[in-house]
Amino acid sequence: MITCTDGQTIKGKIGDIVDAGEEAEDYGYEEDSITVYSEGKAVTIPQSEIKSIETL
């Protein structure tokens, strides 16, 4: 479960962890992020918006 800085919580399966420093500049990521698959949707959350991560 990921808790965002705005208080929103997202439960799901972590799909991708992106290190922006290792991606091509034109790929679209400006900061590290995590993609979570929740309720059939892929939700990408930038590092600056993550308050906490809890393993359930």
What this model shows, in words?
With 56 residues, this protein is mostly beta strands. The chain contains no helices and six strands. It has strands at 2-4, 9-10, 13-18, 33-38, 41-46, 50-53. A hairpin with a 2-residue loop joins strand 4 (33-38) and strand 5.
For the structure shown, list the relevant keywords.
56 residues, mainly beta, 3-stranded antiparallel β-sheet, 0% helix
Structural class: mainly beta
Q: Tell me, what's the shape? A: globular
CA radius of gyration:
11 Å
Helix content: under 10%
List the total number of helices. 0
Strands of the largest sheet, in order across it? 2-1-6
Strand-residue proportion: over 45%
Largest beta-sheet details = 3 strands, antiparallel
What is the end-to-end distance? 7 Å
Number of strands: 6
Mean pLDDT: 87
The topology string of helices and strands comes to EEEEEE
Low-confidence stretches: none
In short:
This protein has no helices and six strands. With 56 residues, it is mainly β.
Strand and helix layout:
Layout: E1 2-4, E2 9-10, E3 13-18, E4 33-38, E5 41-46, E6 50-53
Antiparallel strand pairs: 1-2, 1-6, 3-4, 4-5
